Amino acid sequence: MIKKITGSQELFILSTDHTSYMLAITPSGHAEHLYYGARIDVDTAEELEALRQKREFEPGNAIVYSADHPTTVLEDMCLEFSGTGHGDIREPFIELVQADGSRTTDFLYRGSEITDSKPSLSGLPGSYNADGTAEHLCLTFKDGAMVLELHYCVYPECDVITRWAKLVNNGDHAIELERLLSTQLDLPDNEWQTTSFHGAWTREMDKYTADTTHGKFVIESRTGCSSNRANPFFMLHRADTTEDHGAVYGFNLIYSGNHYAAVETNAYGKPHIVQGVNPSGFRFVLDKGESFTAPESVMTYSDNGFSGQSRNMHRFVKDHILRGEWAKVERPILLNSWEASYFNISESNLVSLAKAGHEMGVELFVMDDGWFGDRSDDTRSLGDWDPNHKKLPGGLGRLSKKITDHGMQFGIWVEPEMVNVNSRLYEQHPDWAMAIKGKLHSEGRHQRILDLCNPEICDYLIEKMSEVFSSGKISYVKWDMNRIFSDVYSPYLHPKRQGETAHRYILGLYKIMGALTKRFPHILFEGCASGGNRFDLGILCYFPQIWASDNTDALCRSHIQEGYSYGYPQCCIGAHVSGSPNHQTLRSTPLETRFNIAAFGALGYELDVGKMFRWDKEHTRLQITLYKVWRDVLQYGDFYRIRSGNVHEWICVSDDKTRAVGMMMQESVEPNTQAHRFYCKGLDPDRTYRFHNISGRVNIKLFGSLINTMSPIRIRQDGMLHNMIARFIKMGGEVEDHTAKGSVLMSAGVALRQQFSGTGYNENVRLFPDFSSRMYFIEAVE
Q1: 252 - beta bridge partners?
Q2: Which residues are catalytic?
Q3: What is the pTM of this model?
Q4: Which residues contact 726 (CB under 8 A, 6 or more apart)?
Q5: Which residues pair with 32 in a beta bridge?
Q6: Do the bridges between strand 364-367 and strand 409-414 make them parallel or antiparallel, or are there none, so unpaired?
Q7: Over the stretch 69-83, which tens digit does the pLDDT of each residue have?
Q8: Confidence of residue 105 (pLDDT cuts 50, 70, 90)
Q9: Which residues contact residue 646 at a Cβ distance below 8 angstroms, ignoring those fewer than 6 apart?
């Protein structure tokens, strides 16, 4: 709950089940941050005084706020927000230019309001409670005719606090807002590290940890989207923090555009963390009576290590971000046509592919790019959202009926935000694309970006996509966006308002997504932007899952999905089994491993299932059957990272702790390391469980020429006889089957069967070469 104590000073306490967040108003009218961490109780003025920073004299070479407050030195205070001027030289929370050209701001406290409902965020998505209530605090500060509101919401069961800000110009003259961030957290000591997630296309969510005890560490996107270069989620933690122990702060932003976060340590050793819309290139003009609302930011704290922080964030996303009919529904297993067909599609080959998938248990068939206009490659027809009748003679209606008649759902790929110059849409409306008149425009994937600052374009896309989505039995839409921004300019906006372009584009996007998800609540929308180029909480407010990466290589995906797992639950992560060698890396990995990694997400397949070998088809059918049994745990269970590195170990545990699925994957073999132990997490220590695997069949070709140590005749490796033997003879894999209490499985672990190390093999030896993996199932015994 939020508690307010009124006396000579005001104290505000925001409490969750396990954390406390405290701030107080100083005699000078500033909002001083006192504490954020494990839950504590402060009930008296004496206890409040124990938390406040003490100062009798100003430090040398610093600025005193005023003669009336000679010990107030803003540069060295823990504040709820920082401005410019009056001596606060840290990264500002708010920055603006007033009519007289001045930049100094002096927002001082004027009042507070505590409500049980959350106000809307002016066109931006945000968190919510299913029952419509919210524990909400608004603090108001004024500087002349300008009003700054700081908003806080509390989600106690998730140990999450959200923040955002709003600036209102009540003056007679326009102001130019150059930044208004969403959150600021100042801490009293500098023994912290920052972990953030960076990368590029097909290399998303690389985990990077840096000491941030001096200087400034910046996490930002200038791409026009949240970007694969730097995800908006990051953590602050102690150097000795582990998965299960130690203090961790988690931060995220409910926003899909250019974002910015900085972890700065001031001259006195105090960390200063800010996050919000990227101020680079941003300038918002506020005329009299106009306002600007910053996106909502998300904060959590856990003293149970990285996994504790992750579970807080996962619970928050599942309960307070995802919404609509698909929020808590198990996601269907899909087959996507892209890597099987690319642009070379036709009604007949799509139906044939879907039928082959259905025979293996696939529930949803998705037609990817290439179905509209004159779309034979990626240089043409983007924007012309009418079916190509040479490829689809009966349009989406007839194709979708043929697919659904086979007992499957049907989905399509679209990329509504983009246009090719070689298209009817561009020929009719060249001014609808972002470009600077008379100057070269640099393109990505032969595309230009439609100017979503223009309401006419937004309305057109809403109606055109509504026409497409209504033209057949469509249950799923993959919404792509395959380029970052360049030469950012809106032909619709006045030249003096071009600094608003990037943010207004995102507002236009949210308007389109909001309208379409409301019109088509039954459709499962999956966000995609070259894979993980727009994987953020803003998209998840509309689309309940996101294609995590265009890279489907199992080894790469083990790192990518593990990176996402720090801030996002597995039900949000689109993950596919694709062909081998992989189309992005040319790496060959076992089908078992490709499935085991993809199963820890919203499972799909992206390969030509009709041309798979008979044994692979049967194996895939069994995988799909298995996934359906355990899908609820894999998509919605509590996720734990057990081990990372050369060996990855994960486990998902059901809410009632009666069922769990574990996974172990090895990147490369270390010779003569025969013993592995699997340590479970998240189980009930007093409950008895059965720990077991499903024994696989081993392809004899895995042994190569070693087959000759047991064969009475010489067999040439990869020769006709070798291939024939491998086709008809499959060897049994090792069996694990143990019954033990949860405390044993978690503390002592399970000693697995001996790993093959070149000294002998029988059915009790675990063959575990490079890129091998195993899945383990844990069930409570009544």
Answers
A1: 298
A2: 480, 550
A3: 0.95
A4: 699, 700, 701
A5: 24, 79
A6: parallel
A7: 999 999 999 999 999
A8: very high
A9: 666, 667, 668, 670
